[in-house]
Every structure is written in C-alpha cells, then in structure tokens.
C-alpha cells in the first residue's frame, strides 16, 4: 500500500536515490530527502508511535518539527524525532516507550486503569507512605518515558561557532525571505535562519499548488541566492534568544552563537489541533501536516478525507487533496464561511457542511470514520483521514525570550506581539498577517526597519497588514461524555485532567501547567498551550489576556547535550621548567590553573619520595619551582605610597636592596594575600602574590591606583618571570659557583635582595626563609628560567641536590609554622587571628582595611596555634578541617597537619578559640569517623625556633619588625 | 589565497619582543617612523620587527635581539617571553570557533587584544592573504598551541 | 551574551570583562565613625537603579566605568576609568 504521489512541484525528495532502513523489524524504503515519518507514511504505516502515559497508538499530528508522536531509538541515539530526522541508510529504528513492540505494546494496559490515574495522581497518590515513593518513582519512570540512554556511550562534542551579523531573520517563509532581502538591500550583513532544509516556509507547502505565486517565489529565492550579504542557514533553529540579540542557533553541525544587531522574527504560527473524542487516532492530523506531507515528500495523507475547518486554510488543504487524487468526502465548516478557496471546492462538488461540529473520531487501530453534527443533527462518514484546520498559535518563543508581550486579538482570535523590544521586529503570520502579498510587504517593512536600526537611522511608521477576519476558532474544543479528548499529546492530557486541576484550585495558568503537566513534554506546548489557555479562560470566566500564558524558555526545540557541551576550553598554565619536571618523574597537581609538581616519584612510594625531598632540604640542598607566584612590578613617583596603602606593613621605609613580608587585607580586615616585596630603587618595587591571587590582586591594585589617583604603574609579570627557591645548608656554596655575587652574610644578609647575573643571565636574588633553611629565591626572565634551573641541578649533583615539590614545601613550612593564605586562613580570618600582629603597622595614616583592623584588634576571639598530636597510632591521623571539640562544643578546626619527618611527630596548625590557645592546652580533635584524639598546643616554629638555620650567625637586617 | 590554503599553525619565536612602559612613549614611536600610529595599531618595521601603540604610556616593540635600547628617564623596558605563533590559511574561520570577537570590526594594521579559548592573546591583524601573527603569555603557550591544533584537526569546518 | 561598545576597543563581549563592584567613594579612614565604616564595608542597597560600575577588560588590562541599569541590565555609558592610558608613570 504505497502512498507516494506523482512528483510534486516543490518536493524535497530525490527520487533517483533511495534510502533503506529498518523500523520495528520491517524494512522501509524511502527516498533521499525523506524524513523518517514521511518514509513510513509513504509505505502505508499509520501507527508510528505510542503515547507517553497510556501507550495509545499515534500517527502524524503536526508534522511541524515538534511531532512528539514519532520518537525513535537507535543503538546509539535516544529520541530521534521522526518528523525532523532523515533516515540513515541501513539504520535500525524502534519506537520509544513500548513494551514488546509498537504493534503489540503491553504498556497499553495502563489505559484500562486510567480512571484510577487522575490528574496529579503522581503528586498525591504516592506521597505517603514516603518510604515507598522511590519504588513508585522507579515504576512510573519505567512505564512512562522516552528513549533510553546507555551510559557506556562515549563522550560526544560538537564544536561551537561564533558568528556576527547586522540583521538576523528567524524563519524563511514568505515574510522572512522578504525581510532578509529588504534588509540586505540596505547594505547590511544578513543571516536568514530556517529550521527546514530549504527556505520557503508556508509559501512552499500551503501555496504549493497556487500557480499565480510561482513568479513571486522564484523572485524571492533567486534574489536571496544572488545577494552576497545574505547568509542562509538552513536545518537550524534558534534554540534560545538571549540578551543583546544573542541567538543560540542549533544547526545539525553544532551550535552557532550568533550575535545580531537587530532581529526579525518571522517564525510564523503553529497549527493547533481540534480537541474532540479520539482526536489522537492515527489518520487525524493538522491540515498543514497533510500539506507538508504532500508538498515536501509527495506522500498522500490518506485515501478518503474529511476536512474540519474554521478558516480558509482548510479549504486550501482540501484543494491540495483533490489535486492529488484524495477523495474529499466533506468539509465540516465550523464557522469560516465563504472565501476565495471555498468557491473552487464547491465547484469540485465537495459537500460543504456549515455550522458543523465534530463529535468523535472512530476507529480501532486507526481512523475509520467521523461522527459530526450539522445544525445539531448527528451524522457520520467513513474516512481514513481527518484534517483539522481550526487555528493558529504564535511560534512566539524568540519574541517572548526577547521580552515582548502578546495580546489577544479578538478579530483574528489569535495572540499577537505587542511592545517589541528595541532592535527586535516581527512580521508575517506571527504578526497576524495572512494574505501572502501582505506577508511579503510586512516582511519588507520589518527587514528595512531592522537594517535602519543597525545604521542608527530613524524607522518609518509601520503599515498595519493584520488580517481582518478570524483564522482561528475561538474555542476548538468539543467535549464528549465518554472523554478521551486530548489537549496535550505529549503528556496524554485530556479535558477532564485540566478540569480536575482547575477544580482543585490550580486555576492559574502557571499552576495548571505544573499540576497537570500540560506543555511540559518534548513539544513544550507548541500544539497544546493555546487550547489549554482557551479552556482555562472559559472555565474561569476570564479573557485570554487575563488568563495569560506560560513562559517560553529555551530550548525552542529539543537540543542535544553534545551541542551544549561544545569543545573543551580549559586553560592550563605550565611553568618554564615544566619539561624538566616531566623528565624528573614529577607527579603533577593542579594549583588553580597551574600544573605544579606535587612531588617527584624518585622513591618506592609517594611518602618516601616526599620524605627524601624534605631530608634533602634539611640536610643538603633542594630546589623548588615557584614560578607560579604572582609577580608584580611597581614603578613610578608614587610607588612607595602605593605599597604603603596596599599592605599592612610599612613599605616606604624599606631600604633599596631589602625585602619585606607583604600582607594584604580587604576592607573588612580579612587576609586576602601575602607575598614578599623588594625595593629595586626609590621608585621601583617588585612584589610577589600567592599563586591563586595573581590575577585578582593585580586587577585590584590597578583599580586602587586609579581610585587613589597615584602616579604609578603596576605591571603583572607573573608569566614573564620564572622563579625558583634554592634552600638548604649547601645552597650558598652551590650558588657561589654560578654567580659573581658576594653571598657572604655581610654582603648579602638574611631578607636582603640583590640583582646580579646567575649562569650568565640577569637575576633577582632574595634571601628568604619560608622552608626554614638558608635559602635564595631566584627570579629570572621566563626565557632563561629553564637554563638556570638545569645549571643548578647539574652542578648541584655534587651537593646532593634534589628538586622538591609542593608537598615537601608544605611540610617544611609547617615545621616552621608559616601559614598558607587560603589554607590556614579563610574568608573571615584577620591578621591577629593568623597570629601575625607584628605584620600590622598602625602608625601608617592609611592602608587598606585599617579601620577594620583597629576595631578587630580588641575583639579577637580566636587564634592560629601550633599543636602536636599526643597519639602516635597511624590511623589516628586527623585531616585538615577536622573539628576541635571541647565539652561537646566546637572550639576550632585543624587548618594544616602533617607527619614531620624531621621532628618525628605529627604537627599541625589549628584555628582555635582564645580560651584554649595557651601553650600546653589540650585539644580534642574529632576525626572524620567520629573518634576523638588528643593533641596539645605547642609553640611555633616547631623546628629551629630561633631561626638559626635560615640566617646562620647573624641577626636580621631590613626584615620583618 | 589564504582562504583556500590549509590552516596551519607554527611557532614563530619573537625573541626581541619588549614591553615598554613609562613616560614619553611618543618619542619611541617617532624615532621609528610610527608617530601616526593610533592606539591599538601596529606597524611592521622589517621582517620580524614591529611596533605597536598600546597607549600613551605603553608600547610593544619587537626589536632585533642585538638592538640596543636607549631609555629615557621614567621609561622602563621589560622583555616579553610570549608564546608567539604564525597562523596561515583561513585563520578567521578558526577564530570563529575559539574567539567571540567580531572580526568584521578589525582592519589590517590593528593590534587586537582578545580572549581566545579562555586565554588573553594579542593579534597582529594582517593584510588579506598574509598569515596572522599572534601571541599570549608564555605559561599559557602550551595550552594555546595544543587547543588551536586540536581545533584545526577535529573541527569539521576547518 | 551582552556586548559593550568601548572606546578604543570596539564592540566586545561581556565575557571578556570582570566585574569590579560599583563605584563608591571611600570614606575617610581617620574621621570615620564605627557605624559609617560598617555601612561602607557591609551594607549595600540593592534597590534597582542606574549606577556606575567598575568593569575590567582582561585581554587589555583596562578598567572601564559602565553606567548600568540594574533592573534592565542595559549599559548606557562606557568610559575609561582613568585618564585612560595617559597617567604618566
């Protein structure tokens, strides 16, 4: 039973190339250009899917890219949409949500108990007892659902593309095409987007057989093809309309993020089904669906048709049927009356019944006849096709998302856009324009206005082309005593369900939607919301405008996650010494966007490797890459003033050649950054920040320079400079062989800074003590950093050098009691709590956060202390963030902890209440498993409290007060 | 023609790249016959040498590595070890997949600073059919090159 | 995505910018009362209005001031935050 017609004037299929695929075990032959649904229908299939809830048989309904009835599954894709997707040669498709097969679906038994499944049953029936809910939920999810995802499927990503244009036109029907041309003629760049594979829209299916329009059609299409500044994007829909005319265009090859200066919305209208008993029988379809089927795919919708119509478009569809040899048994006119197309229909001898009402569709597996009434007298007809042409709803999602409002036009019985936002224009049927010549004029004026808006020219007044007669039925709903009148085919919502929702108080459109789930299925209300609104308005005695409508959120059509995922752009920073670290078996960790060596896997285990690194620093010499530190140059007349204002310590009295700890707090007095500042000259400082704050600190400092009006330049050189810390008893001896700089205590004391050559390149040396040994931080240009590192490592062999990673450094600094900002401090910690009152110089007249610190000094409640664990058992090891408990109350938390190889103890830092901060106070730490372990407060530094090792045989100079 | 030539990315070391900050930058522009450069424009001086105006107190100057620099008072010169690349072929097609910037705005001679694949970068907008020179912070260089190469390899549009 | 037309930069995506808070006059640290300081640090009136805001363009490192309506999210004025690129070092 082939339903393929003879060639149609504008058909999309290529008859010279066939496509074969398998549907529910049966081989289907279609043509290249067919969608799955058209190929199935051509081969005589009428039952294309099963409904979501009751598993009722379903065929074509809207055939307008939102036909939920036909959803298919392949071996690697769920929810293939039959009315959109072209079949792949050799592919196997199966209907979703069936038990057994499409033909014999055991799930259909649900319908027998449907009276026990009233609207909202899901919310109510299974609510108590609560413990059973997960069981019910699983059952419901099994029974009602769509395609299934196999979690073993691999990652899929589609590249996203950016595109910019002056005017975007959404929809390439007659008005959209005209708009694109009019805009392009103004000389602007135009993108014309259509969800179908070809432009033309309703001009090509609704008017396919109107010979008088052939010239118009050719003109429009030829002009578009010839204009270089019109870019046509087909098989693509605008999934979302975002701020500043930013359009998410979903194309088959991925998402196009399109930025337009103005947008013309020419999306047209969705045909709405009539609501009556058994309106979901396969064979009952929208008139425009039948027209698309014939014009695009040359497939007959049926053999014997009845047309239910409230508008001239229904008569046009009847003429198309007649032309293609379908017997039209009757026109059931519900109130359209005479129009230009009714005359030829009547001339063809087709019975036209005015004042008709539909009562029900009849048929077991598919439509076999209709029962209707004319002037109250019930009659019936046999037929295998019923075309519904009862009205339209705006395809308004882009306009709603752009922020425009809609109001009901009582002449057209249609919602029309009002108050369009700036730069957004509408034209064509969404604007209520139904005559084809008017649609083209409306498109021209919208396209012209959109282009003029781009050019900042004034836009002439618009001519109103709105139709002067109704194209929609005011209430296309015919209730039947036995029910089964479907309003929402996605979710199997019937009249009684909405009535039930309203009766239970869900009589606001948003409440009704959520309680009944109308409009919440895959077609997102495109075929159901308008009827839902009409029903609600009628039952509550309100107008359509008073009733309102729900929000049309993105995505406009179902959108693949792979489209949203896009490619992965995850910036990653590597230090100049990265290649060395890799060769030296570094195990890397992420530190913000950086990759840093956590440790070098030189020993049998992580712990042993770290211990070896710690031992090398304590006993010989180690080298760590600290290139990730933020590095800022500060120069200019007011540089000292800026440094004083930014940091809590006084910086302006630093001598040239000195370094100083640099602690920064925010307005509320919370520690936000620390580093080391050095002074190169009177007007030139260099300061480091923590790894994670380099960008934010730089940004903030630049802003402060502007606010304070200082003559100073700050330059972020983080990535331009490589830095390393050479530390350990052998460091001086090693370094002395690579530089001419006098490294003696006298010439280069602790905390001093010197500039000199190392390994032949310019370097800054800072004598620091972060890890508690004699040590030098060496900063060189990023180009030179690897060379210097390699030279030090090479020469260091004879000094038993080891490179050390972040983990060893954390242990080493912990032994010294040095804090890490962001680990030992949090978003509330001030310098007094961090036990660094020495770092706050109140004598300065001004610095960031000073007023807060002045007050906080007297309000201190907690403090960072060192502790050691009293237990030695290996499984008693607390973790960072474990709580400290006293008498059932929380009195603090562990901020750092580690097993010190040097001291042979477990040591840590904890933020505790002042009451338990005295040396020797006992702390009870609650482990993650709930057990308690004991620790006691001890003095810090744990290691080398006098600091003799980091500054052997001398006192500090120019350093921390 | 660059639009038909296959997209290719090469490392293009610019060891003489310097970042000048400070007073009287106009004098440096003048000395190099570039006094007429507007902000965010560059001029090719010879082969790999170029000068770019980033504002009254800031220029990028790519000099010969051996060239000696005379600095006036309150002028500072910092070497930039940027990762620099040459992109030949239809580089705008690649950019449309990694960069949100509307390249219809840019002209040959523009020194363009934009985000590309999440990284701040600078571009020397070339004459039509010339390759594009672009650079970014050296520590992002590895990621930057890898992501552009991967995009060229995997994108169905390039 | 919002786009902002900036002096010298042209039309740029807002994703290239980082928000830096509203423009506020810092109180005088010496003379400030405890209450005034607390209000400056902690209390911000969120009522919709057109306000001046700091926005940082990351690729160039330039701070801009935007006039932005917090209700409609429309940006009506864009200026360099300083004398721009002319504050001599």
From TrEMBL, chain A:
Database matches in InterPro entries = 2Fe-2S-bd_N, BFD-like_2Fe2S-bd_dom_sf, FAD/NAD-bd_sf, FAD/NAD-binding_dom, GcvT/YgfZ/DmdA, GcvT/YgfZ_C, GcvT_C, GCVT_N
Kindly indicate whether the keyword Transferase belongs to this entry: yes
Q: Which UniProt keywords apply?
A: Aminotransferase, Oxidoreductase, Transferase
Residues of the GCVT N-terminal domain: 577-844
Annotated ranges, domain SoxA A3: 482-566
Q: Ranges for the FAD/NAD(P)-binding domain?
A: 166-434
Family the entry assigns: Belongs to the GcvT family.
Write down what this protein is called: (2Fe-2S)-binding protein
- What organism, scientifically named, is this protein from? Thiomicrorhabdus marina
UniProtKB/TrEMBL annotation, chain B:
* Domain of life according to the entry: Bacteria
Instruction: Kindly provide the name given to this protein in its UniProt entry.
Output: Uncharacterized protein
Automatic annotation (TrEMBL), chain C:
Q: Name one Pfam family in it.
A: SoxD
| InterPro entries according to UniProt | SoxD (IPR006279), SoxD_sf (IPR038561)
Protein's name in the database: Sarcosine oxidase subunit delta
Species of the source: Thiomicrorhabdus marina
């Amino acid at each position: 039973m082939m339903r393929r017609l003879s060639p149609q004037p504008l058909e999309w299929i290529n008859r010279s190339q066939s496509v074969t695929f398998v549907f529910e075990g049966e081989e289907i032959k279609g043509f290249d250009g067919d969608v799955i649904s058209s190929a199935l229908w051509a081969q005589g299939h009428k039952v294309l899917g099963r409904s979501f809830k009751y598993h009722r048989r379903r065929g074509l309904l809207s055939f307008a890219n939102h036909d939920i009835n036909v959803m298919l599954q392949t071996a690697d894709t769920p929810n293939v949409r039959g009315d959109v997707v072209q079949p792949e040669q050799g592919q196997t498709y199966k209907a979703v949500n069936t038990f057994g097969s499409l033909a014999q679906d055991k799930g259909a038994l649900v319908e027998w108990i449907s009276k026990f499944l009233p609207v909202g049953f899901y919310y109510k029936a299974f609510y108590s007892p609560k413990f059973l809910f997960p069981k019910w939920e699983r059952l419901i999810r099994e029974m009602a659902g769509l395609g299934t995802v196999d979690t073993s499927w691999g990652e899929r990503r589609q590249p996203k593309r950016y595109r910019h244009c002056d005017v975007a036109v959404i929809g390439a029907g007659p008005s959209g095409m005209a708009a694109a041309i009019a805009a392009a003629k103004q000389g602007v760049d135009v993108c014309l987007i259509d969800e179908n594979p070809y432009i033309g829209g309703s001009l090509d299916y609704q008017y396919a057989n109107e010979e008088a329009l052939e010239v118009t059609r050719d003109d429009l299409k030829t002009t578009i093809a010839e204009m270089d500044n019109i870019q046509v994007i087909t098989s693509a829909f605008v999934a979302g309309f975002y701020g500043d005319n930013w359009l998410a265009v979903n194309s088959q090859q991925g998402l196009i993020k399109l930025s337009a200066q103005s947008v013309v919305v020419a999306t047209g209208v969705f045909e709405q089904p009539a609501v009556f008993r058994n309106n979901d029988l396969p064979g009952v379809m929208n008139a425009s669906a039948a027209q698309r089927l014939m014009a695009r795919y040359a497939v007959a919708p049926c053999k014997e048709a009845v047309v239910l119509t409230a508008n001239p478009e229904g008569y046009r569809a009847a003429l198309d049927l007649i032309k293609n040899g379908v017997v039209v048994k009757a026109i059931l006119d519900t109130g359209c009356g005479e129009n230009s197309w009714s005359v030829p229909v009547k001339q063809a001898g087709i019975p036209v019944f005015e004042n008709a009402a539909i009562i029900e569709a009849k048929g077991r597996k598919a439509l076999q006849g209709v029962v209707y009434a004319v002037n109250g007298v019930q009659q019936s007809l046999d037929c295998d096709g019923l075309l519904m042409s009862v009205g339209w709803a705006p395809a308004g999602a882009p306009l709603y998302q752009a922020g425009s409002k809609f109001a009901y036009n009582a002449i057209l019985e249609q919602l029309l856009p009002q108050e369009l936002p700036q730069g957004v224009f509408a034209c064509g049927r969404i604007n209520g324009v139904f005559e084809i010549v008017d649609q083209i004029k409306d498109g021209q004026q919208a396209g012209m206005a959109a282009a003029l808006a781009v050019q900042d020219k004034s836009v002439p007044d618009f001519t109103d082309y709105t139709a002067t007669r109704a194209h929609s039925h005011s209430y296309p709903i015919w209730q039947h005593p036995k029910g089964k009148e479907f309003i929402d085919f996605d979710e199997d919502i019937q009249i009684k369900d909405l009535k039930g929702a309203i009766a239970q108080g869900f009589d606001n459109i948003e409440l009704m939607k959520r309680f009944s789930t109308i409009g919440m299925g895959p077609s997102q209300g495109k075929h159901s919301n308008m009827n839902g609104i009409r029903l609600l308005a009628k039952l509550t005695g309100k107008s359509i405008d008073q009733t309102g409508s729900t929000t049309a959120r993105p995505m406009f059509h179902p959108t693949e996650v792979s489209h949203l995922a896009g490619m992965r752009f995850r910036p990653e920073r590597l230090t100049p010494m990265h290649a060395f670290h890799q060769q030296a078996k570094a195990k890397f960790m992420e530190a913000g966007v950086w990759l840093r060596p956590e440790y070098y896997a030189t020993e049998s285990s992580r712990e042993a490797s770290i211990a070896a690194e710690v031992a090398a620093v304590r006993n010989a010499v180690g080298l760590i890459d600290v290139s990730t530190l933020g590095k800022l140059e500060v120069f200019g007349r007011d540089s000292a003033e800026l440094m004083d204002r930014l940091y809590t310590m006084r910086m302006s009295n630093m001598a040239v050649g000195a370094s100083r700890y640099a602690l920064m707090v925010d307005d509320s007095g919370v520690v936000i950054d620390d580093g080391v500042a050095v002074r190169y000259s009177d007007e030139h400082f260099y300061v480091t920040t923590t790894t994670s704050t380099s960008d934010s600190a730089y940004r903030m400092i630049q802003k402060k320079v502007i606010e304070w009006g200082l003559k100073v330049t700050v330059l972020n050189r983080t990535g331009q400079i490589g830095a390393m810390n050479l530390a350990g008893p052998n460091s001086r001896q090693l370094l002395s062989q690579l530089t001419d700089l006098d490294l003696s205590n006298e010439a280069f004391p602790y905390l001093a800074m010197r500039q000199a050559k190392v390994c032949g390149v310019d370097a800054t040396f800072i004598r620091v003590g972060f890890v508690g040994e004699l040590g030098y931080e060496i900063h060189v240009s990023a180009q030179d950093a690897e060379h210097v590192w390699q030279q030090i490592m090479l020469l260091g062999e004879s000094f038993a050098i080891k490179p050390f990673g972040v983990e060893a450094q954390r242990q080493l600094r912990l032994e010294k009691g040095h804090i890490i900002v962001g680990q030992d401090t949090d978003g509330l910690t001030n310098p007094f709590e961090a036990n660094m009152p020495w770092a706050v110089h109140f004598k300065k007249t001004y610095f960031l956060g000073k007023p807060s610190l002045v007050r906080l000094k007297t309000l201190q409640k907690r403090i960072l202390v060192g502790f050691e664990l009293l237990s030695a058992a290996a499984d008693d090891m607390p973790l960072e963030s474990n709580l400290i408990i006293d008498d059932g109350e929380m009195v603090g938390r562990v901020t750092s902890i580690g097993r010190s190889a040097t001291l042979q103890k477990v040591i840590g830092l904890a933020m505790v209440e002042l009451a338990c901060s005295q040396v020797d106070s006992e702390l009870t730490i609650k482990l993650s498993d709930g057990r308690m372990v004991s620790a006691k407060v001890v003095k810090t530094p744990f290691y080398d409290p006098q600091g003799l090792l980091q500054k052997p045989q001398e006192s500090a100079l120019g350093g921390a007060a | 023609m660059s639009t038909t030539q296959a997209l290719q990315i090469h490392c293009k070391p610019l060891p003489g790249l310097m970042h000048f900050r400070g007073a009287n930058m106009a004098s440096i522009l003048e000395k190099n016959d570039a006094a007429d450069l507007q902000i965010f424009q560059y001029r090719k001086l010879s082969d790999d040498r170029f000068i770019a105006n980033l504002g009254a107190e800031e220029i990028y100057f790519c000099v010969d590595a051996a060239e000696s620099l005379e600095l006036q008072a309150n002028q500072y010169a910092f070497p930039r070890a940027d990762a620099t690349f040459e992109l030949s072929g239809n580089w705008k097609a690649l950019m449309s997949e990694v960069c949100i910037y509307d390249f219809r705005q840019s002209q040959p001679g523009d020194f363009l600073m934009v985000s590309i694949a999440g990284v701040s970068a600078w571009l020397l907008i070339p004459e039509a059919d010339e390759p594009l020179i672009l650079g970014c912070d050296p520590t992002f260089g590895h990621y930057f090159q890898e992501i552009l190469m991967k995009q060229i390899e995997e994108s169905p549009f390039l | 995505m919002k786009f902002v037309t900036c002096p010298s930069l042209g039309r740029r995506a807002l994703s290239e910018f980082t928000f830096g808070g509203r423009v506020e006059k810092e109180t005088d640290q010496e003379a400030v009362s405890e209450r005034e300081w607390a209000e400056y640090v902690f209390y911000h009136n969120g009522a919709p209005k057109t306000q001046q805001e700091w926005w940082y363009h990351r690729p160039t490192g330039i701070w801009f001031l935007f006039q932005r309506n917090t209700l409609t999210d429309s940006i009506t004025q864009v200026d360099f935050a300083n004398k721009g690129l002319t504050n001599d070092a």
